[in-house]
Each structure stands twice: as structure tokens, then as C-alpha cells.
Amino acid sequence: MIITAETYHVPVLLKESVDGLDIRPDGIYVDVTFGGGGHSREILSRLGRNGHLYSFDQDADTERNIVNDDRFTFVRSNFRYIHNWMQYYGVERIDGLLADLGVSSHHFDDETRGFSFRFNAPLDMRMNKRAGLTAADILNNYTEEQLADVLYLYGELKNARRLAKAIVNGRQQKAIMTTADLGEVIEPFMRSEREKKDLARVYQALRIEVNHEMDALRDMLCKATQLLRQGGRLSVITYHSLEDRIVKNVMKTGNVEGKLEQDFYGRISSPFRFASKVAVPSDEEQQHNPRSRSAKLRIAEKA
């Protein structure tokens, strides 16, 4: 199959998320999740000659979607290093940042990467294929307690301890190297009425651990808070409660923990104010793009 930008990833809440940036034609913007380039192209369509867009992605596969435009700079890096790269390019302040978190359509549909239990594939799950532990490394080397923590914290699985024990017992018989190997070990412990949902949570937990997604998100949001000019916008699409909680906390309180800080008069102090209500995809978008069904868009403005 020939992969184009359109088939690589279908952008979610495209108009709503870019509208939320309230783009200035001469502004400097950052798309920290380039993927198929859908959001980036929409941002570029609204920029004037003096505007500029920096787009981040650590996956080499995304480079086939790079935009040929003098107002565009592609950064092949994890978005957690946004501050370093903006310094490198001499950018002190940005006018807006867009993030479409989670996994692209391409990753779920790529039969070789191990992101989906729909295919029998090596358990890799690395967004950046050049470095780091794979999902197979984690499954075969983490202790039972470590595995239980990953499954409970990142998959929110109530039977995390039973699953971790099953994985440890299973790998003693045979190394868990493929999605089929993992399914053979854990499927007996899945409830039939919610087997697919629980399997998805297992894969979510492993993917988050492999790519250090929560740490990267915290780092990026903290740096974005520092980089945004007054009146600059943060437009973030989340897909599960873990990342949504972090985004909401930062937008509400200015910190990932959600700790409210008050001034002498008891007024809540935060670097942001919400610019709109939480948006979700329309019924039509959810029908045409199943990945969008769990999406939430939050938009905040730097105070």
C-alpha cells in the first residue's frame, strides 16, 4: 500500500483545534505532533508570508509527509525537547502550540510495529525506532511488581496484578516476543464481554511505558508554558483520562499536579485561562474516523 499524508493519519478535530489557536498571520506556531501533517498544513494555510511553523515528530516515517514551504521547519525530535530546539532556532516566544496526543492512524495500521493486537507482529511500540526499550524488552525483563504498576497506572486495569503474574509465568515457558505471544499469555484472563477494551488498555499501558509518554507530556507542557507569549494559545487533543488530567491541570493551575495557588486575596493564580469549553468530535466525524471517538479538545490562553 502506498502511504500518503492522507492515509498516514486522519487529523482529529482539525478545524476546531486550529481555530482554537486564534492564528496571527505573522505569528510563530508549533505543532508538536506532526504525523501526517494535517494540522500543520491547516496552520500554514492561515499564516502570512512572515509567519512560521515548527513541527515536531520523533518517528522517521513522518518525514515522507514534510511540507515544502519556506515558512515551515520540521524537527525530528521528541516534543519534550521543545525548549532546546526553540533556543537553537533563536525563538524566544511562540504565539501558539497544537498537540494531537496519542497514536496516529499509521501506527495502528502498520502491521510491523506491534501497536495493535489486530496483527501478529514483533512487540516493538517505539515511536522512535532508533533508541530505547521495546515492549518485548519490558515484558521479558521487568519484575512482576514493575509490570503490575505499569498495567495499573497506565492501563487502569483492575486485574493488573493477575496479568503481571501471568506474564511472568508465561515468559518462563517462552519469551514473549510478538503480539500473538502476548495474547496467548493474557487472553485467558480477559473477561469475554470486554476483552477488546481490556486488551486495548494493556497495549496502551505498554506503549506509554515504552515511549515515556507521561513524562514527555509533562515536560512539554511546562516548557510550552514558559515559551508562550501573553495571549498565546495552547490547543491540545487528548484521548484517555491520564493525559487529559495532566492537560487540564496545567491549563487550570499552571502545574501538572493541579495544585491551586492563591494570591494574598485568595484569588486563584494561574498562567492560563480557558479560552473555550471542552470540544468533542461531531457524530459525523466519529463515524468517519473511529479514532476520534474518545478525543477531547482543550484550549487555553496565556494570561
Give a written overview of the molecule.
With 303 residues, the protein is of the alpha/beta class. Helix content is 41%, strand content 15%. It is built from 13 helices and 9 strands. The strands form 2 sheets. The chain has a 7-stranded mixed β-sheet with strand order 3-2-1-4-5-9-8, sandwiched between helices. Strands 6-7 form a two-stranded antiparallel ribbon. Helix 7 (144-155) packs across helix 8, helix 7 (144-155) crosses helix 10 and helix 11 runs parallel beside helix 12 (241-253). The longest helix has 17 residues, at 195-211. It is globular. 42% of the residues are buried.
What's the quaternary structure here? single chain
The tally of beta strands, per DSSP, is: 9
Contiguous uncertain segments of 5+ residues:
none
Residue-averaged pLDDT, rounded?
Answer: 90
Strand content: 5-15%
Backbone shape: globular
SSE order in H/E notation? HHEHEEHEHHHHHHHEHEEEHE
- Largest sheet composition: 7 strands, mixed
- Name the structural class: alpha/beta
| Biggest β-sheet: strands ordered side by side in the sheet | 3-2-1-4-5-9-8
Rg, Cα atoms, Å: 20 Å
Summarize the structure.
The chain has 303 residues and is of the alpha/beta class. The protein has helices spanning 5-8, 14-19, 38-46, 82-88, 105-109, 135-141, 144-155, 160-173, 179-186, 195-211, 213-227, 241-253, 283-288; strands at 28-31, 52-56, 72-75, 94-100, 228-238, 261-262, 268-269, 272-274, 296-302.
